[in-house]
Amino acid sequence: MGKKDDRTASQDKLAGREPGLSVVATGMRIDGRLDTNGVVKVEGMVSGSIRAERQVLVAKGGIVEGDILTREAVIGGEVRGAIYADERVEVQAGSQVNGDITTKRILLQEGGEVNGHLRMEDPKALAREPGAAELPTGDQAAELPTGDQAAELPTGDQGDGRQSEAEAEGSEAKPDSRISWQPPVGQGVPSD
User: Which residues are 78's β-sheet partners?
Assistant: First the structure.
């Protein structure tokens, strides 16, 4: 069957036909990896990685629990995993990404939420293997605490001047000159 599938794909390419649109409809759940050379639209739920050469669309109400690897990603629902997009990522209002994003360009609409790191670089997403952990390299690795250093990291009011809720109960907050006041949005800074 592999040879027949290869011939069909070659014939489609010669005939000028583009890869199709695959839809994970509302109420549908897919467990496992999705891989296509076209476009994937998720209206339901995918529990696994998605690799689409052209585009991944996560519609409002759609959920992806896994990494997304594509050329372009448009997120209107929820993603719980990393996004690697060769060209661009769009995070729409009301959507949520709980994971890192690596792409060349990003559009984050007001009301869209990203809980993770953003890397503006060429991710080579389509060459990446889904689920591959991204480890810090070079200078990034040198900045991470290790061994005894990690155990000595300050907590509570030892390092940043703020107290945990447990420490603040029954005691006054200590002023810290490093924390500066900023006016609420739309209000000016008071003059002395």
Answer: 63, 96
Q: Name the one residue in this structure whose structure tokens are 């949005």.
A: 185
Q: Please name the amino acid found at residue 106.
A: I
Distance CA 86, CA 127 (A): 10
For residue 129, the tally of other CB atoms under 10 A from its CB is: 9
**Tell me: the pLDDT tens digits for 53-81?**
999 999 999 999 999 999 999 999 999 99
> Residue 152 domain-assigned?
no
| Total tally of structural domains belonging to the chain | 1
Residue 93: inside a domain: yes
Residue written as tokens 């889904």?
Answer: 130
Please compute, for residue 65, the number of CA atoms within 13 A of its CA located in the half-sphere on the CB side. Answer: 8
Q: What is the pTM of this model?
A: 0.61
pLDDT tens figures, 153-176: 444 444 444 444 444 444 444 444
How far is it, in rounded angstroms, from Cα 18 to Cα 40?
14
